[in-house]
Amino acid sequence: PAVTLRADYRPPEWLVPETALDFDLDPAATRVRTTLSVTRNGSHAEPLRLDGAGQEPLAVKVDGVLVNDWRIEGEQLVVPLAGDAHSVETEVVIAPDRNTQLMGLYASGGNLCTQCEAEGFRRITFFPDRPDVLSRYRVRMTADSARFPILLANGDPVAQGDAGEGRHWAEWNDPFPKPSYLFALVAGDLAVNRGSFTTRSGREVQLGIWVRASDLPRTDHALHALKLSMAWDERVYGREYDLDVFNIVAVDDFNFGAMENKGLNIFNSRYILADPDTATDYDYDGIAAVVAHEYFHNWSGNRITCRDWFQLSLKEGFTVYRDQGFSADQGSPAVKRIEDVRSLRAAQFPEDAGPLAHPVRPDAYQEISNFYTATIYNKGAELIRMMATILGPQAFRAATDLYFDRFDGTAATCEDFVACMEESSGRDLGQFRLWYGQAGTPRVSASVDHAPGGGRATLRLAQRVPATPGQPDKQPMVLPLKLRLFGAETGRPLTDERLVLLDQPAETVTFEAITERPILSINRGFSAPVVIESDRTAADLAFLSAHDDDPFARYEAMQQLMLDTLVAGAIEGAADHDAVVAAIFNTLENPELDYAFMAEAVLLPSESFIGDQLAVVDPEAVHRARETLRRAIGQGLADSWRQLYAVLQQGPYAYTPDAKGKRRLRGVALGYIAASGDADTGRLAFRQFEAADNMTDRQAALTTLANGDYAEREAALDIFYNRYADNSLVLDKWFQTQALSSRADTAALVEQLAQHPDFSLANPNRARSLIGAFGVNQRAFHTAGGAGYRFLADQLIALDTLNPQTAAKLLPPLGRWRRFDEQRAALMRAELERIVAVPSLSKDMFEQASKSLE
Ligand code: B3K
Ligand code: ZN
Fold it and tell me: Peptidase M1 membrane alanine aminopeptidase domain spans which residues (predicted)?
């Protein structure tokens, strides 16, 4: 298979200052006429090479004259050109209604829309489809007036009119040069929720959220989040919006969350549509975060884009960091940080420890779609966060100002970004750059020595970066570790918070005037994305969970305490639960803590994260250990849970931080009541399910019922299904809740659900809600015998023929075979081999599956 190497980057041979596109839109046959003004870049004799995928050039003109000396080489259209500047016209016909890959121009719910990142534009027309070719686009669309009354594209609307014969046309112009991956158009029958925003320099921007008419009542939250994002980016980064319109369109068929096309974001409808009856608090938060993320891309991604796809984290890591900051500012920064670390550990740590591990700035790829990963996005954001920590807030802001100023209108690299950080702060980030090139999660061991009665404490730190595919030997990295010591006897802080930059394999840090035994609080705020191995005892961790002044560190101490208990339980079959139960009790009794934080702090680590701590994952042992501890917590604190459950009951639904926190903790309380095994659980959960006036409470009750063996279980699932039969986003929850169930028969149930009339692989959300959720349900997926592996492989092989990009994203659970016992490993490998052997497998799947076998 063809491999693209970062080291092979060459500047483009031809530039395309202007692009004019003329679409004659029709779902079955859309004619695209493209006029490119091209200029030779430097002195060379190379012909013009335009990328295409799947279409034939019907005609090629140079400077208005039909030519026939063009040729097709691989998938490129090669046009010899004599001079240094020409106009090149091509014409193709494409079929959006047969586009099941959902890349390029495709049909969704009767409308037409586009997705071009990373390499979808070449499925629309011939073009140098690479992010460093920036062009000004003018777009004309002609379409049936009745079927497609709304015609949208990037930039500002210029003109529109009647085209006769029941057709109409519209023209849009985007004054900002952009790479082809940011091109977008939408044609359809859409209703709009309009708003406006006045920028700080007084420009009035017209905002529009476009959806099918029946969804209009579910768009206010997204519109509000958009306005908040625009204000936040002005205030926090000094970034102002630059066009007169900003449109967002929601579509049901979408390969991922959303897309930041210039002035015309296109969203997966699940990240736009919300009302209390159909969306959970978690959905509301996700919508605000994604709306903000895509909006922030206007500067970090669009005004400054990536030179090549190896630099993807330049825009994605930075933009995730920006949206994390936005979300933190809307609610509780501590809870947001906990959530972000939780998802880093759920998705990125395993990726970094497995066969698909890659650096934040990769060196090679077969299919770039496979590199939209937790590493590029979430670890990438952690790199930005570490630089912000090292520089401090003022210097960091000065550095981002410099970056935005210097690289505006260009295609930049990760190196350019780091250089701005250095230049504006005067700090040397030479060694820090290893974070971009070395994969793997660093492990840090930490222990404190203190002689009783002595005044000095010595902290010994050592780091180790594990080997990853293609990178057997690693250099020590720069790890910014925030730490503080607390006194074991008095409970008081013994030091200020210190930032230690660990940049050697091993280092010691000394503290003077330490008069009592110190307890180490380290990696506070999760200042570095590493694993800490320390010799802190259960008592130390319990102490920190109660007294640490850093909320994240407090949460972390509790997690570590739970994890130690769970690992012992999984390995030895039994463990002492008292310390965890007591620590949870203290947390629930602490009047200084808010409900949302409490809810996060008392949740046990997931089964997969517990599995990640074991040399060989034993899914049943992990499940048992976790259920046993859950039961001990449920029974040991039965009164607390009952009391909370009663006290946290609320009047009519409100979307406020306080109400959200209460719902969250009440859901957790219900879970622990269920875990206690009390006989009235089914009744309690069903009552909540029926009485709920919002999806958060209803879904929490349904989850509890779906996880157990209650008489009310089936009734609740049926009621839920019937109530929401015409809302596909809620039906996704119905599938997902069952696929995530901790019941022993989940694997069999999921196989049945795949036969359900509402199940379809053609819709990515639906495929992910069942197949994706099943793959991350450790107990169900790894049921002995390998039926889960076979099922996943069958589904992926089928999905690959429709939508390779989405199929390949669901493969990683099979690639984790090294983590399991021999029998499971052999069964998992056999399925990977079966996938690799499929004739005409996509390169997306081939890359993921073959790398997973290595
Ligand atoms: N930039 C897009 C992701 C495109 C994924 C292409 N496979 C959305 C985002 O990160 O904001
Ligand atoms: Zn992004």
Answer: 222-432
